[in-house]
Amino acid sequence: SDMPGRLVFSTTPDGSSTPTERVRISSSGLLTAFNGINGAVTRATAVAVSGSSSVSWGSIPSWVKQISIHFSGVSLSGTDHLLVRLSTGGTFAASGYMSSSNYTTAGGATGGTVSSSGLVLFAGDASNILTGSYTLTNITGNTWIGTEIHVYDNNGDFVGTGASRAELSGTLDGIRLLPTGSNTFDAGTVNITYQG
C-alpha cells in the first residue's frame, strides 16, 4: 500500500503554548524552511526582458540580508543606463540612494555616471550588451550597501564597476531593474538570488 507522508518539525515560541511549523520535508523530498535557512541561497525564476520597460521581483522574505540581481546579454534600445530600485511595503523608492558606476577600458579610457534615484549601472549606448551582477548587503536596520561588476559582451575592452548605498524607509521586500529614462530592453535575461 502506498502511503506518502511528510516530516514536520515544529517549535513552540517563547510565551506560547501553540507549536509553529518551522521545517517540512514533503513526500517528494522537497525541504521547506519557513524562516529561511541561514546561508542558503534562493534563486528566483529567470526573466527574458526583451520588449519590457522593467522587470521586478516582490515578496522578498523579511529575513533576507543579501540580495543580488544578475543579468546576461542585457541591452537597451538607446543611451540610457540601467537602474536598480528597491521596495518597501510594495512601493519602489525613487530616492534615498547614493550610487556611482564607472567603466575602464584596456586602453585606459574611463567614464561613469551617478544617481540618487536608484542604483545605477553604466550602459550608455544601444550597442552595448551587459553581463554581470549587482549585490546588495544589509549592514544594519534598513541600510543596504552594494557593489556591481559587469562586462560588455560586444566589447571585451570595457569593464564596469560600481558602489552604492540605499537608505530604505522600511524592510526591503522587492527589487526592480529598469532603464534610467524611456528606453526599453531589447535583449537579455535577468534573475535574482538572495540569502539570510
Care to describe what's here?
There is one protein chain. It contains no helices and 17 strands. With 196 residues, it is mainly β. It has strands at residues 7-11, 20-25, 31-33, 42-43, 47-48, 55-57, 66-76, 82-88, 91-92, 97-105, 110-115, 119-121, 130-140, 143-152, 155-167, 172-179, 185-195. Helices cover 0% and strands 57% of the residues. The mean pLDDT is 92. A hairpin with a 2-residue loop joins strand 8 and strand 9. The strands form three sheets. Strands 4, 5, 7, 10, 11, 13, 14, 15 and 17 form a nine-stranded antiparallel β-sheet that branches. Strands 6, 8, 9, 12 and 16 form a five-stranded antiparallel β-sheet that branches.
Q: Describe the largest sheet.
A: 9 strands, antiparallel
Q: What percentage of residues falls in helices of 4 or more residues?
A: under 10%
What would you report as the Rg, rounded to the nearest angstrom? 20 Å
What does the average pLDDT come to?
92
**Number of DSSP-assigned strands:** 17
Please indicate the percent range of residues in DSSP E strands (runs of 2 or more): over 45%
In DSSP terms (H or I, runs of 4 or more residues), the helix count works out at 0
Amino- and carboxy-terminal Cα gap = 41 Å
N to C succession of SSEs: EEEEEEEEEEEEEEEEE
Q: Based on helices, strands and strand pairing, what is the structural class?
A: mainly beta
| Shape by Cα distribution | elongated
Low-pLDDT runs = none
Instruction: Name the assembly state.
Output: single chain
